[in-house]
Amino acid sequence: MFAENEGVTTIPPVAEVRRRRVVLLGATGSIGRQCCDVIARFPERFELVGAAAGSDVDGLTAVVERFGVARSAVLAPAAAISRPGTMGSGQAAVCEVAAMECDVVCVAIPGAAALAPTLAAVDAGRTTATATKEVLVMAGELVKARAAATGARILPVDSEHSALWQCLRGEAAGSVRRLVLTASGGPFRERDPATFAQITVEEALRHPTWTMGPKVTIDSATMMNKGLEIIEAHFLFDMPYPRIGVVIHPRSIVHSFVEFIDGAVVAQLGVPDMRVPIALAIADGERLPGIAPHVQLTDGHPLEFFAVDGDRFPAVDLARTAGERGGVAPAALNAANEVAVAAFLDHRIGYDGIVPLVAEAVGSAPAVVTPSLEDILEADAWARDFATARLASVVSPA
Ligand code: MG
């Protein structure tokens, strides 16, 4: 619609893009800091209106001051908050921030602690961009049912699931044959399994391609991370477990791919930089310029793919089986894994003790069909107690 005026064509101003109001849960962690980077780079596109952190009051205060955040909260109940009146503490305060009026809630609180805030965001009907796979692992059915009730959408931030989202955009669900998650294989892809008992925390924390928080870095070393991501993909994309595959791709350039029924395979490639999936999620699928440099495919390094060795990485099948069992089995898997990884990071068990401990907990988990939130929390607590008790018997034998 151009207006003619004395022979000059004037173009009406482009409708002003309203800034997207972002609530960021887990603002001081690895994903949270990168989300802050994205928001700071596009002040005309994003406004951080709410923020929460686990226990880092100083870090959260810095975020609040940097972005002029209206409301904030620290998860730790007795935290000495810095801004009474606008900063709260405890789970209820974090859930209030999660439910704030906004355009997108980015969930980057690690682990099971993100469940209640995620449900608060979903129940308030907020578009929820989640980086915390544990929430869908524990309570995928419940989160999806409650999102369906309020119309809340759940967007992936996890790089593999963001890749699948990108590959699936515009495609009919019926044309998808299989989703394939790529995995770097972590630092022990080629290490002799006979030496796994000697792996140190420092070695396990040295991820070859991604820089991440300690929990997910250990999960990447055991490949439990990929197992959890199978369950995450099942819920995010409504895909049956037999149609979700995993391949090892050490360079982490191909972030995942989709096989279609006609034989076509569509992949998403890029340098390993979490700011790309973070920006895409908080912008609701819109691409922003210059988030990361382009990958150079002519640099002489081949893109290689390998099948997963189930003996070296038993966590993948363990998680898949727990997912297929359903009920509270994935919640038990997740909780026992959190305990086992923490024990390893704390030098209380060896690297080779992590997955067997989780397997034992999953094997003993009760069978519950269509679990309620209470059932899930009960299974989570049960698995933590179970794993902790087993650890006590391992660490201090009678
Ligand atoms: Mg991932």
Automatic annotation (TrEMBL):
Residues 269-385 form the DXP reductoisomerase C-terminal domain. 1-deoxy-D-xylulose 5-phosphate binds at residues 133, 159-160, 184, 207, 220, 225-226, 229. Its cofactor is Mg(2+); Mn(2+). Mn(2+) binds at residues 158, 160, 229. GO terms for biological process: isopentenyl diphosphate biosynthetic process, methylerythritol 4-phosphate pathway involved in terpenoid biosynthetic process. Gene3D superfamilies: 1.10.1740.10, NAD(P)-binding Rossmann-like Domain. Pfam families: DXP_redisom_C, DXP_reductoisom, DXPR_C. It is an enzyme of class 1 (oxidoreductase). Pathway: Isoprenoid biosynthesis; isopentenyl diphosphate biosynthesis via DXP pathway; isopentenyl diphosphate from 1-deoxy-D-xylulose 5-phosphate: step 1/6. It catalyses: 2-C-methyl-D-erythritol 4-phosphate + NADP(+) = 1-deoxy-D-xylulose 5-phosphate + NADPH + H(+). Keywords: Isoprene biosynthesis, Magnesium, Manganese, Metal-binding, NADP, Oxidoreductase. Residues 22-140 form the 1-deoxy-D-xylulose 5-phosphate reductoisomerase N-terminal domain. NADPH binds at residues 28-31, 54, 134, 213. Its EC number is 1.1.1.267. SUPFAM superfamilies: 1-deoxy-D-xylulose-5-phosphate reductoisomerase, C-terminal domain (SSF69055), Glyceraldehyde-3-phosphate dehydrogenase-like, C-terminal domain (SSF55347), NAD(P)-binding Rossmann-fold domains (SSF51735). Residues 154-237 form the 1-deoxy-D-xylulose 5-phosphate reductoisomerase C-terminal domain. GO terms for molecular function: 1-deoxy-D-xylulose-5-phosphate reductoisomerase activity; manganese ion binding; NADPH binding. It comes from the Bacteria. The keyword Manganese applies. NCBIfam families: Dxr. Catalyzes the NADPH-dependent rearrangement and reduction of 1-deoxy-D-xylulose-5-phosphate (DXP) to 2-C-methyl-D-erythritol 4-phosphate (MEP). This is 1-deoxy-D-xylulose 5-phosphate reductoisomerase.
